[in-house]
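Section 3.1: Structural characterization of target chains.
Under the original work plan, the team committed to producing a structural model for every single-chain target entering the pipeline before any wet-lab resources were allocated. The record below documents one such target. The sequence was received from the expression subgroup and is listed exactly as submitted; it comprises 292 residues.
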Amino acid sequence: MSNKQNLENIKKLREITGVGFKDCKLAIDENNGDINKSIEYLRKKGIAKASKKMSRIAADGLVLIYEKNGMISAIEINSETDFVAKNKEFITFCKEISEINFKVQGDIKKIKSSIMKNKKTAEETLIALISKIGEKITLRRSKFFDNKGTNFSYVHNSLDKNIGKVVSVVKLEKNEKIDLKEIGSKLAMHIAASSPIAIDENEIGRDILNKELEIIREEMKNSGKKGEMIEKIANGKLKKFVSDNTLLNQIWIMDTKKKVKEVLKSCSGEEEIKVLDFVRFKVGEGAGSNYL
């Protein structure tokens, strides 16, 4: 690896973790320049703290939603800089892609082969736009919510209608006995602010929990803790990780004395408000990294 590339990796690691140059350099050297392994290395050493936000912010662009007949689609389209993200031609392209995304129900392969208003495929239009603007542009991720439930959305840092830097969509089970509009809208806002990774513990991948437990145990060992004490502390930290990252167990942003599941219960009385699905897209979050 060249010295220039090595310095770039150290810089990225510092931006992600907030750890000093010396420790980041050691981590990069020990892990042959691998950013994800270096993050894990720093956490095991107890130098970098656990955070669901510990992901590489390596892209700019826009996130968009499209709503019709109770259905909603969401898509993230990346550019390299905020300057391009504000470009009128780029925004016009994104708006049309968002509409196509809705029509093909979130299938990016189908988006690329779809014909746009200029009579060219989306992929051909994308290549032409990249050539003209001079930046890499990618259709990164998408999701579609059908109307087999009641959907609510929220756009943060809105630049135009249904366009922003953070979008969230939540699907609740239909219930004619409860007015879901207010709580559904607030829940979408909570998701945008709190960034859960799953509805509850059962939906967090076992690989994520095992990796988190491994990191916590190593951190405890390196801090001098022994045997049973390690397991006791590790289990406590894992429970906090689950609580912080699962929607139903998170602290409600509008009343920090309550958890989300308690708020849903108080709004429903004898009925049940059931969360079926959700998504949160933040521009560039996790781009280039598979950490968490």
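The chain has a mean pLDDT of 88.
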